[in-house]
Write a structure and sequence with these properties.
The chain is 95% helix and 0% strand. With 198 residues, it is mainly alpha-helical. It has helices at 2-71, 78-88, 90-197. It has three helices and no strands.
Length: 198
């Protein structure tokens, strides 16, 4: 009965180890999916910002083309045309600044994403470390339990050997008692027979 109880406890420990490993695996998968979702969201937001800034900068290019056509009319002299042209070329500079701001925003989003991914990876590593510690503790407990079970089985085996030895001794003693009784009966019979002869 004790061995059966130890086997049940051993099975429970194995079941706990499997649950722990399955939990760690599910948590790791969840973190990886979270990292992927965060990357996808940040990427979409960055693309949306680039698209919005591109749309807002398009009228400037259209106005620039229209302004270029109006300012460089044939009835203007060369000096006025040059001044108007120099004023008009400032519009693309603002567009370039907008594009730089978009790239800077995209870089910031990418940096934030990398920071989040690094934080989640650190959490994953910490979780794996804790899982390894728990797994090692359970493994140590299992080894100690196996040692105790082996010692208990050995003790039960020795007890069984002692019981069998005692049973053999009792059987031998019983045989000696029976033999002694038979001798007593035989001696009593011989004594009676000798008295009868005399």
């Amino acid at each position: 009965m004790i061995i059966c109880g130890d086997n049940i406890l051993n099975k429970k420990i194995n079941y706990l180890i499997e649950l722990l490993l399955e939990y760690s695996k599910n948590e790791a998968i969840h973190i990886v999916r979270t990292i992927g979702q965060a990357f996808e969201v940040c990427h979409k937001l960055s693309l949306q910002k680039i698209s919005n800034n591109t749309l807002t900068s398009s009228p400037a290019h259209i106005n620039f083309s229209h302004q270029e056509n109006t300012t460089l009319a044939p009835n203007m002299d060369s000096v006025e045309k040059a001044e108007r042209y120099l004023q008009s070329v400032q519009i693309p500079i603002s567009s370039v600044n907008n594009e730089r701001n978009v790239l800077h925003s995209y870089s910031s989003s990418e940096f934030t994403l990398k920071h989040q991914m690094q934080f989640m990876q650190e959490q994953l590593q910490q979780m794996q470390h804790e899982s390894e510690l728990a797994f090692n503790q359970i493994k140590l407990i299992k080894e100690q339990l196996n040692i105790e079970i082996a010692a208990r089985i050995d003790s039960q085996k020795k007890n069984k050997q002692l019981i069998d030895r005692n049973r053999e001794l009792l059987t031998h003693i019983q045989q000696l008692l029976n033999y002694t009784r038979e001798l007593e009966i035989l001696l009593f019979t011989i004594k009676i027979f000798s008295l009868y002869l005399t």
